[in-house]
Amino acid sequence: MPEIGEVARIVHYLHKHLVGKTLAVVKAQHDENVFGKVGTSAAEFEKALRGKRVVDARQQGKYFWLVMSTPPHPLFHFGMAGWWKIRDLETAYYKPTKPEEAVWPPNPKSWKFILETSEEPKSEHAFIDFRRFGRIRLIDCPANEMRNVSPLKENGPDPVIDKEILTEEWLVQKLQSKHVPVKALLLDQANISGIGNWVGDELLYNAKIHPEQYSNTLTPAQMKQLHKSIHYVCSTAVELLAESDRFPKEWLFKHRWAKGKKDAPKHLPNGERITFVTVGGRTSAVIPSVQKKTGEVAGDVKRQDRDEDEDEDEDEDLEEKNPNPARRESKKIEDDNQDETKPKLGKRKAKKDDGEAENEANPKPSRRRVEKTDKDDEGGEEAITNIRTPTPLKSKKRGVKEEGVEGTETEVQGHVNGNGNATDKSLPYRRAPRKQKASTPSVQQKVTEASSGRRRSTRVGGAPK
Questions:
Q1: What does residue 406 show for φ and ψ, rounded to 5 degrees?
Q2: How far is the C-alpha of 288 from the C-alpha of 273, rounded, in Å?
C-alpha cells in the first residue's frame, strides 16, 4: 500500500505537471467500489472538474487532494494498489513500470479517470486501481477547510506537516492511554496519519522496540526514542520521494521482503536474523537481537494464563495421590452445605430419578422389534421377529410366507387383529397397522396365500386371472 513517502512522491509530480493548468478533458468510468462507496459517481466527477483550473495539490498522510478554482475539490486515497500515472513519465517508486504497462491510455479495466490539460505542452494523467480498494471523493467546502471535514478530520496528525502537534508529550499521552501492541497503534490512522506497514517496521527497528509490546509498557526512554524515530523515518521517506535506492544502507527496508521467497536473504548484511510476526493483521519484520521485549506482550499474557491452569491441574493430581486430611474434611463440609441448599424432591420424583439412574447404569437390551411386511388386500399384518435368533421362529397362526435367512420358507410369529391389537398378549407392542395407499393400475402385485395351499395371482385394480 502506498504510504506517506509514496503519496508525497505523487504530490510532487502533481505540482510539476498539473498545478496551474486547466482541465480540458475529464473522462471517468464508474466503479461502485471506488466512487460509489463514498457517495460519488463518475458523472458527478466529470461535471465537477471539467473546465476548471487546478490551483494546488496537498497531502495528509495517505490522503491527497487537488485544490480546484471552485469547490468541490477531489480527494483521493490509493487503497492497497492504486497509483497515479502520467503519460511519458515514470512515476513509480520502487516498482518500475513494466513495458506492457507503458502503453497509453492504460488498461481500461484498471483506470478510473483520465485527465488532459488544455495548455501546451499537454499533460495527460490517469488514476489506476485494478484491485478497486482506492477511493475518490468530492468535498464541497472551502479549500482551507478540507482538513476540518470527514474523512480527514477523523485522521491523526501528519508526522511531517504537523510536527508542532505530534510532540513528544503528545505521543507519550497517546501511548499510555492505550493497551494495544505498539505496531497496531502506529498503523491506526486515527492516531497518526501516513504510517503503513513498512514505515512502521522501519521506525520500530530504528527505535529498537518489539512490535508486539504493549504501548503502555514502554519505558520513558523508549517513548522518547520512538518519537525521534517517527520523525526521522517519515521525514526521510518524504524528502527522498520514497526512492528506495536512496534510502540509508542501514535501513531494514531493503531486506524486509524475504518472507515467502526461497532465494531471499533471511539475515541482514551484519548477520542479524530476520523473523516475521503478525501484528494488527499485518506481517511485521523483526530483528530479535535488536528489538527485544522489555514489557508485557499479548503472547506472554496467554502463556501466563495457560501456565496457571496447568499449575491448578497439577495441584489436583497431587491431591488425589496424597490426600490432605484437613482439606478432605473441608471439602466434605462444603459438599454438605451444597446438599442443604439443593431443593428437596418428592417421593415420586425421587423414585423416578433413581429408576432412571439405574436404567442408565444397567441398560436392558430390547428383545424384539417390529418389522413391516407386505400386506394383502384384506388387511395388514406385521411380523415381529426375535433379534436374538438368526432364523425366524414358526408362527402360531398361519401367515404370510417369507424367505428365510438361508433361503428356506419361514412363517410369521403372531399377527395384529382387525382392531389393531396384538393377539399374543406376551408381545410388548400394540400398534395399529399402517394403511397402504392403493397402487396404480399399472403396478402388479403378486400375493401368495399359504392357508389355501394353492397359488393364485391377482392384479390390483383389475380382474383376477
A1: -105, 15
A2: 7
Q: Dihedral of CA 104/89/76/174: which sign?
A: positive
- Structural contact between residues 213 and 182, judged by C-beta atoms closer than 8 angstroms: yes
Please write down the long-range contacts of 450-454, taking CB distance under 8 Å and 24 or more positions apart.
Answer: 450/398, 450/399, 450/400, 450/401, 450/411, 451/398
Under 8 Å between Cβ of 432 and 420: yes
CA angle 36/41/43 to nearest 5° reads 165
Tell me, yes or no, if the pTM score tops 0.70.
no
CA pseudo-torsion sign 338, 344, 349, 352: positive
CA-nearest of 152, 160, 280, 118 to 212 is: 280
Any idea how long the chain is? 465
* Contact criterion met (CB below 8 Å) for 447 and 464: no
Report the half-sphere exposure of 433 (CA within 13 A, side-chain side). Answer: 22
Write out the H or E segment, with its range, that includes residue 197: helix 197-207
The pLDDT score that the predictor gives to residue 363 is 52
Q: Is 114 exposed, middle or buried (0-12, 13-18, 19+ CB in 10 A)?
A: buried
Q: Report phi then psi at 340, rounded to 5.
A: -70, -30
pLDDT tens digits, one per residue of 339-378: 544 555 454 544 555 555 555 555 555 444 444 444 444 4
Rg (the chain; Cα; Å): 41
85 backbone dihedrals φ, ψ, rounded to 5°? -110, 145
% the chain with pLDDT above 70: 62
C-alpha cell at 3: 504510504
**Main-chain dihedrals φ then ψ at residue 150, nearest 5 degrees:** -70, 145
List, in order, residues 6 or more apart from 372 with CB less than 8 Å away.
382, 383, 434
* Count of other CB atoms within 10 angstroms of residue 292: 11
- Let me know: does 188 contact 196? Beta carbons within 8 Å: no
Nearest-CA neighbor of 82 among 199, 3, 194, 196? Answer: 3
Give me 131's grid cell.
484491485
In whole angstroms, give the CA distance from residue 199 to residue 197. Answer: 6
Judge contact between 5 and 196, C-beta under 8 A: no
Chain segment 333-350, per-residue pLDDT in tens: 555 555 544 555 454 544
Per-residue pLDDT tens digits for 216-245? 999 999 999 999 999 999 999 999 999 999
